Amino acid sequence: MADRIGRREGDARCELVHAAQLPEVHSDHAGVALAEVNEAYTTQTCTECDALSGPHGREGLAVRQWVCSDCGAVHDRDRNAALNIARLGCETLGLKGPGSRVL
User: Fold this and answer.
1) What range(s) does the Cas12f1-like TNB domain occupy (predicted)?
2) Pairwise CA distance, residues 73 & 53, whole Å
3) pLDDT in tens, 15-69
4) How far apart are the first and last CA of the chain?
C-alpha cells in the first residue's frame, strides 16, 4: 500500500513538471518566442504613461475598470494587464513590441 501511494505521488510530480514545460514545447512547435515575465503590478500600471495608478490591494481586485490618475486613460483591468505583460515579454526578448520580429 505504501509503495502504491509513493508511486502515485511520484507520478503526480512528473505530471506537474510536464505541464510546466508545455508552453515551451508549444511555442517551439509554433516557431514563436516565449519569455517568462513577472506579472506583478501589470493590472495597476497604466499602459499609456507607465504610472502605477491602478486599484491597489484586495479590494482593488473587484474593480474591473479604472482611470489613470496621471494621464486620464480609461482601462479594463484584464486588457491593461495583458498589454503590460506583452510589452514586458517583448522587452525581455529585445523586440520593439507585440507582433515585431527584431529590433
Assistant:
1) 28-85
2) 11
3) 555 555 666 665 665 667 777 889 999 999 999 999 999 999 989 889 999 999 9
4) 58
Q: How far apart are CA 43 and CA 41, in angstroms?
A: 5
pTM: 0.68
* C-alpha span between 97 and 57 (Å, rounded): 29
The type of residue at 6 is: G
Annotated domain spans of the chain: 1-34, 38-103
